[in-house]
Amino acid sequence: MFFDALNATSTTFFPDLLIFLALSRFPNARRWRFGSKKTAVDVGRERVGWSSRFWLGRPATAQVFFFLGKIYLRGGDCFVAAGRLVDNKISWRGDSALTDGSEAKLDLSKGMYDAGDHVKFGFPMAFTATVLSWAILEYRDQMEAVNQLEPAQQSLKWITDFLLNAHPSPNVLYIQVGDPVTDHKCWDRPEDMTEERPLTQVNASVPGTEIAAETAAAMASASLVFKTADSTYSSTLLTHAKQLFTFADNNRGSYSEKIPEVATYYNSTGYGDELLWAASWLYHATADQSYLEYVTGENGKEFAQWGSPTWFSWDNKLAGAQVLLSRLSFFGASGNSVIENYRKSAEDVMCGLLPQSPTATSSRTESGLIWVSEWNSLQHPVASAFLAALYGDYMLTTQTAKLTCGDHSFEPSDLRKFAKLQADYVLGSNPLKMSFLVGYGDKYPQYVHHRGASIPVNATTGCTDGFQWLNSTKPNPNVAVGALVGGPFLNETFVDSRNNTMQTEPTTYNSAVIVGLLSSLVTTSAAVKSFG
Fold it and tell me: What is the pTM for the complete model shown?
Protein backbone atom coordinates (compact mmCIF):
# COMPACT_ATOMS: atom_id res chain seq x y z
CA MET A 1 0.00 0.00 0.00
CA PHE A 2 1.29 3.43 -0.91
CA PHE A 3 1.60 6.38 1.44
CA ASP A 4 2.60 4.15 4.34
CA ALA A 5 5.43 6.56 5.08
CA LEU A 6 3.13 8.99 6.86
CA ASN A 7 5.25 11.50 8.67
CA ALA A 8 5.06 11.82 12.41
CA THR A 9 2.76 14.82 12.35
CA SER A 10 -0.20 12.54 13.04
CA THR A 11 1.14 11.73 16.48
CA THR A 12 3.11 14.82 17.35
CA PHE A 13 0.71 17.44 16.07
CA PHE A 14 -0.33 19.75 18.92
CA PRO A 15 -3.78 21.12 18.09
CA ASP A 16 -3.54 24.33 20.09
CA LEU A 17 -0.69 25.45 17.86
CA LEU A 18 -2.14 25.28 14.38
CA ILE A 19 -1.50 28.35 12.30
CA PHE A 20 -4.61 29.91 10.84
CA LEU A 21 -4.64 32.05 7.75
CA ALA A 22 -8.09 33.58 7.43
CA LEU A 23 -7.91 34.61 3.79
CA SER A 24 -10.96 36.80 4.22
CA ARG A 25 -11.57 40.23 2.75
CA PHE A 26 -15.18 40.74 3.83
CA PRO A 27 -15.36 44.33 5.12
CA ASN A 28 -17.85 43.66 7.91
CA ALA A 29 -18.01 39.98 8.82
CA ARG A 30 -21.12 39.53 10.93
CA ARG A 31 -23.09 36.55 12.22
CA TRP A 32 -24.97 34.75 9.51
CA ARG A 33 -28.22 32.97 10.21
CA PHE A 34 -27.63 29.28 10.85
CA GLY A 35 -29.80 26.85 8.93
CA SER A 36 -31.31 29.32 6.49
CA LYS A 37 -31.68 28.45 2.83
CA LYS A 38 -29.09 31.02 1.86
CA THR A 39 -26.38 32.86 3.67
CA ALA A 40 -25.15 36.30 2.80
CA VAL A 41 -22.76 39.02 3.82
CA ASP A 42 -22.52 42.61 2.86
CA VAL A 43 -19.69 43.19 0.41
CA GLY A 44 -19.52 46.91 -0.07
CA ARG A 45 -22.99 47.73 -1.43
CA GLU A 46 -23.53 44.27 -2.88
CA ARG A 47 -25.39 41.47 -1.18
CA VAL A 48 -24.48 38.06 -2.49
CA GLY A 49 -25.89 34.64 -1.56
CA TRP A 50 -24.43 31.20 -2.10
CA SER A 51 -25.80 27.74 -2.52
CA SER A 52 -24.62 25.20 0.02
CA ARG A 53 -23.30 22.85 -2.64
CA PHE A 54 -20.12 23.15 -4.68
CA TRP A 55 -20.83 21.59 -8.08
CA LEU A 56 -18.12 22.53 -10.51
CA GLY A 57 -19.21 23.05 -14.06
CA ARG A 58 -22.76 24.02 -12.99
CA PRO A 59 -24.23 27.49 -12.45
CA ALA A 60 -22.99 27.56 -8.86
CA THR A 61 -19.46 27.80 -10.24
CA ALA A 62 -19.68 31.56 -10.65
CA GLN A 63 -20.87 31.91 -7.07
CA VAL A 64 -18.04 29.75 -5.79
CA PHE A 65 -15.58 31.73 -7.87
CA PHE A 66 -16.88 34.92 -6.28
CA PHE A 67 -16.49 33.36 -2.84
CA LEU A 68 -12.99 32.24 -3.78
CA GLY A 69 -12.23 35.82 -4.64
CA LYS A 70 -13.08 36.76 -1.07
CA ILE A 71 -11.00 34.25 0.85
CA TYR A 72 -7.71 35.97 0.28
CA LEU A 73 -6.05 37.92 3.03
CA ARG A 74 -5.25 41.47 1.99
CA GLY A 75 -2.38 42.94 3.95
CA GLY A 76 -3.73 44.53 7.10
CA ASP A 77 -7.32 43.54 6.31
CA CYS A 78 -7.28 40.19 8.09
CA PHE A 79 -8.35 38.91 11.47
CA VAL A 80 -5.21 36.86 12.15
CA ALA A 81 -2.70 39.35 10.79
CA ALA A 82 -0.37 40.75 13.42
CA GLY A 83 1.06 44.24 13.48
CA ARG A 84 -0.39 47.57 12.42
CA LEU A 85 -3.44 46.71 10.37
CA VAL A 86 -3.56 48.94 7.32
CA ASP A 87 -6.98 49.83 5.93
CA ASN A 88 -8.58 47.44 8.42
CA LYS A 89 -12.26 46.83 7.71
CA ILE A 90 -12.81 44.08 10.27
CA SER A 91 -14.59 45.68 13.18
CA TRP A 92 -13.42 43.17 15.78
CA ARG A 93 -9.71 43.45 14.96
CA GLY A 94 -7.14 46.14 15.69
CA ASP A 95 -3.39 46.68 15.93
CA SER A 96 -1.43 44.18 18.00
CA ALA A 97 2.07 42.81 18.61
CA LEU A 98 3.59 46.12 17.56
CA THR A 99 6.70 45.54 19.68
CA ASP A 100 7.41 42.00 18.47
CA GLY A 101 11.14 41.69 17.80
CA SER A 102 12.11 44.74 19.83
CA GLU A 103 14.40 42.77 22.13
CA ALA A 104 16.59 42.13 19.07
CA LYS A 105 15.96 45.61 17.64
CA LEU A 106 13.94 44.10 14.80
CA ASP A 107 10.46 44.79 13.48
CA LEU A 108 8.70 41.42 13.63
CA SER A 109 5.26 42.91 14.05
CA LYS A 110 3.83 41.44 10.84
CA GLY A 111 3.30 37.79 10.05
CA MET A 112 0.50 35.50 11.16
CA TYR A 113 -0.65 34.37 14.57
CA ASP A 114 -0.76 30.71 15.34
CA ALA A 115 -4.25 29.30 14.82
CA GLY A 116 -6.59 30.62 17.45
CA ASP A 117 -3.60 31.53 19.58
CA HIS A 118 -0.91 34.19 19.38
CA VAL A 119 2.42 32.50 18.74
CA LYS A 120 4.14 33.11 15.41
CA PHE A 121 5.73 29.84 14.26
CA GLY A 122 8.12 30.36 11.37
CA PHE A 123 8.15 26.82 10.01
CA PRO A 124 4.47 26.45 9.02
CA MET A 125 4.24 30.17 8.24
CA ALA A 126 7.00 29.85 5.65
CA PHE A 127 5.31 26.80 4.16
CA THR A 128 2.08 28.77 3.92
CA ALA A 129 3.93 31.44 1.94
CA THR A 130 5.50 28.86 -0.39
CA VAL A 131 2.18 27.19 -1.14
CA LEU A 132 0.42 30.51 -1.65
CA SER A 133 3.19 31.58 -4.03
CA TRP A 134 2.81 28.33 -5.95
CA ALA A 135 -0.94 28.83 -6.24
CA ILE A 136 -0.46 32.38 -7.51
CA LEU A 137 2.18 31.31 -10.03
CA GLU A 138 0.12 28.45 -11.43
CA TYR A 139 -3.29 30.14 -11.40
CA ARG A 140 -2.54 33.82 -11.78
CA ASP A 141 -5.08 34.23 -14.60
CA GLN A 142 -7.88 32.68 -12.57
CA MET A 143 -7.14 35.00 -9.66
CA GLU A 144 -6.89 38.02 -11.91
CA ALA A 145 -10.25 37.18 -13.47
CA VAL A 146 -11.96 38.05 -10.18
CA ASN A 147 -9.62 40.97 -9.44
CA GLN A 148 -7.93 39.04 -6.65
CA LEU A 149 -4.36 38.77 -7.90
CA GLU A 150 -3.27 41.93 -6.12
CA PRO A 151 -4.94 40.96 -2.83
CA ALA A 152 -3.31 37.53 -3.04
CA GLN A 153 0.07 39.18 -3.56
CA GLN A 154 -0.58 41.46 -0.60
CA SER A 155 -1.43 38.39 1.45
CA LEU A 156 1.87 36.84 0.53
CA LYS A 157 3.82 40.03 1.18
CA TRP A 158 2.39 40.32 4.70
CA ILE A 159 4.20 37.07 5.46
CA THR A 160 7.38 37.65 3.46
CA ASP A 161 7.87 41.08 5.04
CA PHE A 162 8.01 39.27 8.37
CA LEU A 163 10.36 36.59 7.04
CA LEU A 164 12.74 39.16 5.59
CA ASN A 165 12.96 41.00 8.90
CA ALA A 166 13.42 37.69 10.71
CA HIS A 167 16.62 37.13 8.68
CA PRO A 168 18.88 39.99 9.81
CA SER A 169 22.16 38.33 8.76
CA PRO A 170 23.12 35.39 6.52
CA ASN A 171 23.42 32.84 9.33
CA VAL A 172 20.69 34.03 11.71
CA LEU A 173 16.97 33.36 11.35
CA TYR A 174 14.36 34.12 13.99
CA ILE A 175 11.91 31.25 13.87
CA GLN A 176 9.40 31.97 16.62
CA VAL A 177 7.82 34.91 18.42
CA GLY A 178 6.15 34.14 21.73
CA ASP A 179 6.34 31.36 24.30
CA PRO A 180 3.67 28.74 23.58
CA VAL A 181 3.60 27.52 27.18
CA THR A 182 2.88 31.02 28.44
CA ASP A 183 0.57 31.77 25.54
CA HIS A 184 -1.61 28.74 26.21
CA LYS A 185 -2.27 29.87 29.74
CA CYS A 186 -4.27 32.74 28.29
CA TRP A 187 -7.45 33.17 26.26
CA ASP A 188 -7.53 36.80 25.21
CA ARG A 189 -7.84 39.01 22.17
CA PRO A 190 -4.50 39.77 20.45
CA GLU A 191 -5.12 43.48 20.98
CA ASP A 192 -5.30 42.90 24.75
CA MET A 193 -2.42 40.48 25.30
CA THR A 194 0.23 41.52 27.81
CA GLU A 195 2.29 38.33 28.11
CA GLU A 196 6.00 38.32 27.28
CA ARG A 197 6.88 37.46 23.68
CA PRO A 198 10.44 36.11 23.60
CA LEU A 199 12.29 35.34 20.37
CA THR A 200 13.78 32.03 19.24
CA GLN A 201 16.49 31.83 16.59
CA VAL A 202 18.57 29.33 14.66
CA ASN A 203 22.15 30.13 13.73
CA ALA A 204 25.46 28.44 12.92
CA SER A 205 25.75 27.13 16.48
CA VAL A 206 22.09 26.12 16.78
CA PRO A 207 21.18 25.02 13.25
CA GLY A 208 17.70 24.51 11.88
CA THR A 209 18.13 23.18 8.38
CA GLU A 210 14.48 22.45 7.67
CA ILE A 211 13.15 25.83 8.75
CA ALA A 212 15.95 27.77 7.04
CA ALA A 213 15.41 25.78 3.83
CA GLU A 214 11.62 26.21 3.97
CA THR A 215 12.07 29.94 4.43
CA ALA A 216 14.43 29.92 1.44
CA ALA A 217 11.72 28.15 -0.57
CA ALA A 218 9.17 30.76 0.52
CA MET A 219 11.39 33.64 -0.54
CA ALA A 220 12.48 32.05 -3.82
CA SER A 221 8.91 31.27 -4.85
CA ALA A 222 7.71 34.71 -3.74
CA SER A 223 10.49 36.33 -5.75
CA LEU A 224 8.86 34.87 -8.85
CA VAL A 225 5.47 36.23 -7.82
CA PHE A 226 6.84 39.77 -7.47
CA LYS A 227 9.31 39.62 -10.36
CA THR A 228 7.21 41.82 -12.62
CA ALA A 229 5.15 43.78 -10.12
CA ASP A 230 8.06 44.82 -7.88
CA SER A 231 11.46 43.83 -9.24
CA THR A 232 13.37 45.44 -6.36
CA TYR A 233 11.43 43.50 -3.75
CA SER A 234 11.80 40.36 -5.85
CA SER A 235 15.59 40.77 -5.94
CA THR A 236 15.69 41.27 -2.18
CA LEU A 237 13.72 38.09 -1.63
CA LEU A 238 15.99 36.14 -3.95
CA THR A 239 19.13 37.38 -2.19
CA HIS A 240 17.76 36.22 1.17
CA ALA A 241 16.63 32.91 -0.34
CA LYS A 242 20.13 32.15 -1.60
CA GLN A 243 21.70 33.08 1.74
CA LEU A 244 19.24 30.97 3.69
CA PHE A 245 19.73 27.95 1.45
CA THR A 246 23.50 28.17 1.87
CA PHE A 247 23.05 28.55 5.63
CA ALA A 248 20.68 25.56 5.75
CA ASP A 249 22.92 23.31 3.66
CA ASN A 250 26.24 24.25 5.25
CA ASN A 251 24.97 24.00 8.82
CA ARG A 252 22.93 20.83 8.80
CA GLY A 253 20.92 19.92 11.84
CA SER A 254 17.26 19.58 12.73
CA TYR A 255 15.71 22.41 14.68
CA SER A 256 13.57 19.85 16.51
CA GLU A 257 16.74 18.31 17.90
CA LYS A 258 18.59 21.55 18.57
CA ILE A 259 15.56 23.28 20.11
CA PRO A 260 13.61 20.30 21.48
CA GLU A 261 10.80 22.39 22.98
CA VAL A 262 9.52 23.14 19.47
CA ALA A 263 8.99 19.42 18.85
CA THR A 264 5.87 19.56 21.02
CA TYR A 265 4.24 21.85 18.50
CA TYR A 266 5.73 21.63 15.01
CA ASN A 267 8.05 18.67 15.08
CA SER A 268 10.16 18.06 12.00
CA THR A 269 10.74 14.49 10.88
CA GLY A 270 13.76 15.40 8.74
CA TYR A 271 15.29 18.14 6.64
CA GLY A 272 16.17 16.40 3.37
CA ASP A 273 12.80 17.18 1.82
CA GLU A 274 13.14 20.89 2.61
CA LEU A 275 16.60 21.02 1.03
CA LEU A 276 15.29 19.51 -2.21
CA TRP A 277 12.18 21.69 -2.09
CA ALA A 278 14.21 24.87 -1.60
CA ALA A 279 16.73 23.97 -4.30
CA SER A 280 13.87 23.23 -6.70
CA TRP A 281 12.34 26.65 -6.12
CA LEU A 282 15.72 28.35 -6.40
CA TYR A 283 16.30 26.66 -9.75
CA HIS A 284 12.94 27.90 -11.01
CA ALA A 285 13.74 31.39 -9.72
CA THR A 286 17.32 31.64 -11.02
CA ALA A 287 17.86 29.01 -13.76
CA ASP A 288 21.19 28.44 -12.00
CA GLN A 289 22.35 24.95 -12.96
CA SER A 290 23.96 24.42 -9.56
CA TYR A 291 20.51 24.11 -7.99
CA LEU A 292 19.43 21.61 -10.64
CA GLU A 293 22.61 19.65 -9.99
CA TYR A 294 21.80 19.75 -6.28
CA VAL A 295 18.49 17.91 -6.72
CA THR A 296 19.79 15.52 -9.39
CA GLY A 297 23.12 14.67 -7.76
CA GLU A 298 24.04 13.03 -4.48
CA ASN A 299 21.48 15.00 -2.49
CA GLY A 300 18.71 13.70 -4.70
CA LYS A 301 19.91 10.15 -4.22
CA GLU A 302 20.08 10.66 -0.46
CA PHE A 303 16.79 12.46 0.16
CA ALA A 304 14.34 11.98 -2.75
CA GLN A 305 12.96 8.55 -1.75
CA TRP A 306 12.02 7.77 -5.34
CA GLY A 307 9.29 5.16 -5.60
CA SER A 308 8.02 5.73 -2.04
CA PRO A 309 5.09 8.16 -2.21
CA THR A 310 4.49 10.39 0.78
CA TRP A 311 1.86 12.89 1.87
CA PHE A 312 2.37 16.57 1.12
CA SER A 313 2.28 18.62 4.33
CA TRP A 314 3.98 21.39 6.30
CA ASP A 315 6.44 18.75 7.53
CA ASN A 316 7.05 16.68 4.40
CA LYS A 317 7.58 18.46 1.08
CA LEU A 318 8.76 15.50 -1.03
CA ALA A 319 5.52 15.03 -2.97
CA GLY A 320 5.43 18.76 -3.66
CA ALA A 321 9.03 18.78 -4.83
CA GLN A 322 8.35 15.81 -7.11
CA VAL A 323 5.39 17.53 -8.75
CA LEU A 324 7.27 20.82 -9.01
CA LEU A 325 10.29 19.15 -10.61
CA SER A 326 8.05 17.21 -12.98
CA ARG A 327 7.42 20.59 -14.62
CA LEU A 328 10.95 20.35 -16.01
CA SER A 329 10.05 17.08 -17.68
CA PHE A 330 6.70 18.34 -18.98
CA PHE A 331 7.80 21.79 -20.13
CA GLY A 332 11.57 21.94 -20.10
CA ALA A 333 12.56 19.00 -22.29
CA SER A 334 15.34 18.41 -19.80
CA GLY A 335 16.28 14.91 -20.95
CA ASN A 336 17.71 14.43 -17.48
CA SER A 337 17.12 10.87 -16.28
CA VAL A 338 17.04 11.96 -12.64
CA ILE A 339 14.33 14.52 -13.38
CA GLU A 340 12.41 11.65 -14.92
CA ASN A 341 12.79 9.86 -11.57
CA TYR A 342 11.06 12.79 -9.91
CA ARG A 343 8.28 12.71 -12.51
CA LYS A 344 7.87 8.96 -12.05
CA SER A 345 7.66 9.50 -8.28
CA ALA A 346 5.02 12.18 -8.86
CA GLU A 347 3.12 9.66 -10.99
CA ASP A 348 3.33 7.17 -8.13
CA VAL A 349 1.76 9.79 -5.87
CA MET A 350 -1.05 10.32 -8.38
CA CYS A 351 -1.62 6.58 -8.74
CA GLY A 352 -1.91 6.32 -4.98
CA LEU A 353 -4.59 9.00 -4.94
CA LEU A 354 -6.82 7.75 -7.77
CA PRO A 355 -9.41 5.46 -6.17
CA GLN A 356 -9.61 3.05 -9.14
CA SER A 357 -5.85 2.62 -9.36
CA PRO A 358 -4.41 -0.79 -8.45
CA THR A 359 -2.02 1.02 -6.11
CA ALA A 360 -4.66 3.29 -4.53
CA THR A 361 -4.18 4.16 -0.89
CA SER A 362 -6.77 2.79 1.51
CA SER A 363 -6.46 5.91 3.67
CA ARG A 364 -9.97 7.18 2.90
CA THR A 365 -13.31 7.63 4.56
CA GLU A 366 -16.27 5.63 3.33
CA SER A 367 -17.34 8.63 1.24
CA GLY A 368 -13.95 8.90 -0.44
CA LEU A 369 -12.21 11.68 1.47
CA ILE A 370 -8.48 11.11 1.86
CA TRP A 371 -8.04 10.64 5.59
CA VAL A 372 -4.66 10.27 7.28
CA SER A 373 -4.74 11.89 10.70
CA GLU A 374 -7.40 12.79 13.26
CA TRP A 375 -5.53 16.03 13.93
CA ASN A 376 -6.37 18.55 11.22
CA SER A 377 -7.67 15.81 8.99
CA LEU A 378 -8.38 18.09 6.02
CA GLN A 379 -4.72 19.02 5.57
CA HIS A 380 -3.91 15.88 3.58
CA PRO A 381 -6.96 15.62 1.28
CA VAL A 382 -6.80 19.29 0.32
CA ALA A 383 -3.05 19.19 -0.28
CA SER A 384 -3.37 15.94 -2.23
CA ALA A 385 -6.17 17.37 -4.35
CA PHE A 386 -4.10 20.48 -5.08
CA LEU A 387 -1.21 18.33 -6.34
CA ALA A 388 -3.58 16.17 -8.39
CA ALA A 389 -5.15 19.23 -10.01
CA LEU A 390 -1.71 20.61 -10.82
CA TYR A 391 -0.47 17.36 -12.31
CA GLY A 392 -3.63 16.98 -14.36
CA ASP A 393 -3.15 20.49 -15.71
CA TYR A 394 0.45 19.70 -16.65
CA MET A 395 -0.86 16.73 -18.62
CA LEU A 396 -3.58 18.79 -20.31
CA THR A 397 -1.21 21.57 -21.29
CA THR A 398 1.30 19.18 -22.84
CA GLN A 399 -1.41 16.97 -24.35
CA THR A 400 -0.21 14.01 -22.31
CA ALA A 401 -3.12 11.64 -22.75
CA LYS A 402 -2.46 8.88 -20.25
CA LEU A 403 -1.13 8.20 -16.77
CA THR A 404 -0.21 4.54 -16.30
CA CYS A 405 -0.79 2.91 -12.93
CA GLY A 406 0.06 -0.76 -13.08
CA ASP A 407 -2.20 -2.33 -15.70
CA HIS A 408 -4.59 0.63 -15.64
CA SER A 409 -4.38 3.94 -17.44
CA PHE A 410 -6.01 7.22 -16.49
CA GLU A 411 -6.63 10.56 -18.16
CA PRO A 412 -6.13 14.10 -16.83
CA SER A 413 -9.88 14.26 -16.26
CA ASP A 414 -9.55 11.46 -13.71
CA LEU A 415 -7.15 13.54 -11.65
CA ARG A 416 -9.51 16.50 -11.82
CA LYS A 417 -12.41 14.26 -10.84
CA PHE A 418 -10.47 13.15 -7.76
CA ALA A 419 -9.58 16.75 -6.88
CA LYS A 420 -13.21 17.83 -7.32
CA LEU A 421 -14.39 15.00 -5.07
CA GLN A 422 -12.15 16.24 -2.27
CA ALA A 423 -13.23 19.86 -2.80
CA ASP A 424 -16.91 18.91 -2.96
CA TYR A 425 -16.58 17.04 0.32
CA VAL A 426 -14.94 20.00 2.05
CA LEU A 427 -17.62 22.38 0.78
CA GLY A 428 -20.67 20.35 1.75
CA SER A 429 -21.09 17.21 -0.33
CA ASN A 430 -20.55 14.86 2.62
CA PRO A 431 -22.69 12.75 4.98
CA LEU A 432 -23.01 15.70 7.38
CA LYS A 433 -24.22 18.02 4.60
CA MET A 434 -22.02 20.76 6.04
CA SER A 435 -19.21 22.92 4.74
CA PHE A 436 -15.92 22.87 6.60
CA LEU A 437 -15.03 26.24 5.07
CA VAL A 438 -16.42 28.82 7.48
CA GLY A 439 -18.89 31.17 5.85
CA TYR A 440 -19.60 29.00 2.81
CA GLY A 441 -22.98 27.35 2.47
CA ASP A 442 -26.00 26.96 4.72
CA LYS A 443 -24.24 25.00 7.44
CA TYR A 444 -20.68 25.44 8.66
CA PRO A 445 -18.83 25.36 12.03
CA GLN A 446 -20.10 27.88 14.56
CA TYR A 447 -17.57 27.25 17.35
CA VAL A 448 -14.25 27.73 15.59
CA HIS A 449 -11.30 27.46 17.97
CA HIS A 450 -10.05 31.02 17.61
CA ARG A 451 -9.66 33.53 20.43
CA GLY A 452 -10.51 36.69 18.57
CA ALA A 453 -13.54 35.13 16.90
CA SER A 454 -14.87 33.81 20.21
CA ILE A 455 -14.62 37.01 22.29
CA PRO A 456 -17.05 39.91 21.79
CA VAL A 457 -15.27 43.00 20.55
CA ASN A 458 -16.58 45.08 23.45
CA ALA A 459 -15.48 42.59 26.12
CA THR A 460 -12.69 43.57 28.47
CA THR A 461 -10.59 40.51 29.16
CA GLY A 462 -7.21 39.76 30.60
CA CYS A 463 -5.08 36.68 30.22
CA THR A 464 -7.25 34.23 32.13
CA ASP A 465 -10.74 35.69 32.53
CA GLY A 466 -11.21 35.29 28.80
CA PHE A 467 -11.56 31.53 29.27
CA GLN A 468 -15.25 32.16 29.90
CA TRP A 469 -15.51 32.70 26.15
CA LEU A 470 -13.60 29.54 25.32
CA ASN A 471 -16.06 27.56 27.45
CA SER A 472 -19.17 29.49 26.43
CA THR A 473 -22.03 27.52 24.89
CA LYS A 474 -22.86 30.43 22.60
CA PRO A 475 -21.62 30.41 18.96
CA ASN A 476 -18.71 32.68 18.13
CA PRO A 477 -19.87 36.30 17.95
CA ASN A 478 -17.40 36.98 15.12
CA VAL A 479 -17.38 34.85 11.97
CA ALA A 480 -13.96 33.70 10.76
CA VAL A 481 -14.95 33.81 7.09
CA GLY A 482 -12.65 31.71 4.92
CA ALA A 483 -11.28 29.57 7.75
CA LEU A 484 -10.84 25.91 6.85
CA VAL A 485 -11.25 23.95 10.08
CA GLY A 486 -9.56 20.69 11.02
CA GLY A 487 -12.25 18.41 9.62
CA PRO A 488 -14.03 15.10 10.24
CA PHE A 489 -12.93 11.94 11.97
CA LEU A 490 -12.48 8.71 10.01
CA ASN A 491 -16.09 7.72 10.78
CA GLU A 492 -17.14 11.05 9.22
CA THR A 493 -18.40 12.62 12.43
CA PHE A 494 -17.69 16.18 13.53
CA VAL A 495 -18.18 17.74 16.97
CA ASP A 496 -18.58 21.50 16.67
CA SER A 497 -17.00 22.63 19.93
CA ARG A 498 -14.38 25.27 20.68
CA ASN A 499 -12.60 22.80 22.95
CA ASN A 500 -12.43 20.20 20.17
CA THR A 501 -9.18 21.47 18.73
CA MET A 502 -8.69 18.33 16.64
CA GLN A 503 -11.61 19.31 14.46
CA THR A 504 -12.51 22.99 14.86
CA GLU A 505 -9.12 24.70 14.72
CA PRO A 506 -8.16 26.08 11.30
CA THR A 507 -4.68 26.37 9.82
CA THR A 508 -2.91 28.79 7.53
CA TYR A 509 -1.53 26.10 5.27
CA ASN A 510 -4.95 24.51 4.79
CA SER A 511 -6.29 27.84 3.59
CA ALA A 512 -3.32 28.50 1.32
CA VAL A 513 -3.67 25.09 -0.33
CA ILE A 514 -7.43 25.31 -0.79
CA VAL A 515 -6.95 28.67 -2.53
CA GLY A 516 -4.82 26.84 -5.08
CA LEU A 517 -7.22 23.92 -5.29
CA LEU A 518 -10.31 26.05 -5.88
CA SER A 519 -8.45 28.29 -8.31
CA SER A 520 -7.59 25.22 -10.36
CA LEU A 521 -11.12 23.86 -10.39
CA VAL A 522 -13.38 26.81 -11.08
CA THR A 523 -12.57 26.59 -14.78
CA THR A 524 -11.07 24.02 -17.10
CA SER A 525 -7.45 24.80 -16.40
CA ALA A 526 -4.18 24.68 -18.22
CA ALA A 527 -0.85 25.17 -16.54
CA VAL A 528 1.51 28.02 -17.26
CA LYS A 529 4.60 26.80 -19.04
CA SER A 530 6.98 29.18 -17.31
CA PHE A 531 6.96 31.07 -14.01
CA GLY A 532 9.33 33.69 -15.38
Answer: 0.88
